Amino acid sequence: MVFTSAIFLFLFLPLTLVIYYLLPLLKLKNIWLLIVSLIFYAWGEPKFVIIMITEIVINYFLALLIDKFREEKALKLFFMISTVIFDIGILCFYKYINFFFININKLSSILGINMNFNILNLTLPIGISFFTFQTLSYVIDVYKKEVPVQRNILNLGLYISLFPQLVAGPIVRYIDVENEIHKRVHSFHDFYIGIRRFIIGFSKKILIANTLGKTADIMFSNLDSLAFTSSWIGIICYSFQIYYDFSGYSDMAIGLGHMFGFTFKENFNYPYISKGIQDFWRRWHISLSTWFRDYLYIPLGGNRKGLNRTYLNLFIVFFATGIWHGASWNFIVWGCFHGIFIILERCKIINLSKMHPILIRIYTLLVVIIGWVFFRIEGFRNSLKVIKSLFSLSSYNINTIIYDLNKEVFFILIIALIFSMPILKYLNNIVKLINEKIYSTLYVIQDISIFIVFIISITYMIASSYNPFIYFRF
């Protein structure tokens, strides 16, 4: 993974950018981006690029048929349903078929039937959940007349395979980049903003996520001996790891988008300062939560069919959110866990309006952190074991904190805490209001600091063999 990251950083990306800006026409730039995006995807596993190309071709023609038979409602609906079945079918086959077989085998064994489905030797295509949802959003929006059908298959291929956000999001909807595919502006300012954002994301990933992720792995390496302090250190480190890993990748994708003239929407908005679980999902993985809102929650009826139906719809959405993340009961439990608290807040059993703001934030963080246990730990029983240790005060020992946290991890934890809140953004805004010259100077100092941190991050990346991308597996 480190070797691959170095190739991307020092060879693939510079070469892609140089040739991209040397090409005179936007049409040629688009073709070049399509080619390098397919090469980028094929780098990990060449055979999976065939699946992506197949999805591009099939969805291209089905969208054309939806547009052609727009006035014939039955045919139009048939082609739209065919698209959903095809796309979800590929996703389910690679991601969930073995999960289905395993559970059917277990259930049949309990019932004394013993069906014994053979487990298939399948490798999950990287990022299949992301590009499948992007493809679906395009075809559904064509069906709903929210976007015109794309008649150039190369342009559709570019949208689906665009490498900056291909393997780990954010989920980019066609309606948001349609105009930029056909006509986009390139400027030095946008390129500079893109580089700055990319470096920030890269540094978040390498310095914070990797450092804390390694500590979390150590804490959870032996669940049988897990104590109160080590369990809290582990889950706090993991909570920051997953945030800085995924938000870091989103920053890199947004930054790369700027370099090529695309503006991707924000995917995170300081989720750990949320006031309730509803607010958390307005700030966490925004592209996924809005996708489920627009393409599942609202079509199910949203909140338009009474309270009981609203609660059912919310539960279905969060069940789907859980299983989207992976073929595991732990992910399903994690999704339903969040869904239950969303419902409790909606029906006022948990009445946030009557809680002190500090208590609201404590409650939110506690729910989110406990939820991450199901996300991080394999096996439901193991998850319960970790949760139990989080509240086993009898195993508390302050000396283990000193033993488990070295100076580097402690320092990174402080940095992670500070940058999980909009403190710097708030200070920048205050300085800008007081004095523009001081703000400009501060901005230059920040740029120099970001560049220095980038150099340090590269050094860390080269020196370490630990460089997991959590969301690659989705």
The arrangement of helices and strands along the chain is HHHHHHHHHHHHHHHHHHH
Total individual domains: 2
Strand content: under 5%
Largest sheet, strands/sense/barrel: none
Which structural class matches the secondary elements?
A: mainly alpha
Gyration radius, to the nearest Å? 24 Å
What count of helical segments does DSSP give?
19
Percentage of residues in helical conformation: over 70%
Distance between the termini: 17 Å
User: Poorly predicted ranges (pLDDT <50, ≥5 residues)?
Assistant: none
Large-scale geometry: globular
Average of per-residue pLDDT values: 89
Q: Please count the beta strands (DSSP E, at least 2 residues each).
A: 0
Structure description:
The protein is an all-alpha fold and 474 residues long. The chain folds into 2 domains: 22-184, no CATH class; 190-463, no CATH class. It is built from 19 helices and no strands. The model has no long low-confidence stretch (mean pLDDT 89).
Summarize the structure.
Helix content is 73%, strand content 0%. It is mainly alpha-helical and 474 residues long.
Key structural traits:
19 helices, 474 residues, 2 domains
Topology:
Elements: H1 2-22, H2 26-44, H3 48-68, H4 73-111, H5 128-143, H6 153-161, H7 174-182, H8 188-219, H9 228-259, H10 277-283, H11 286-297, H12 307-325, H13 329-346, H14 357-376, H15 380-390, H16 398-404, H17 407-419, H18 423-434, H19 436-463
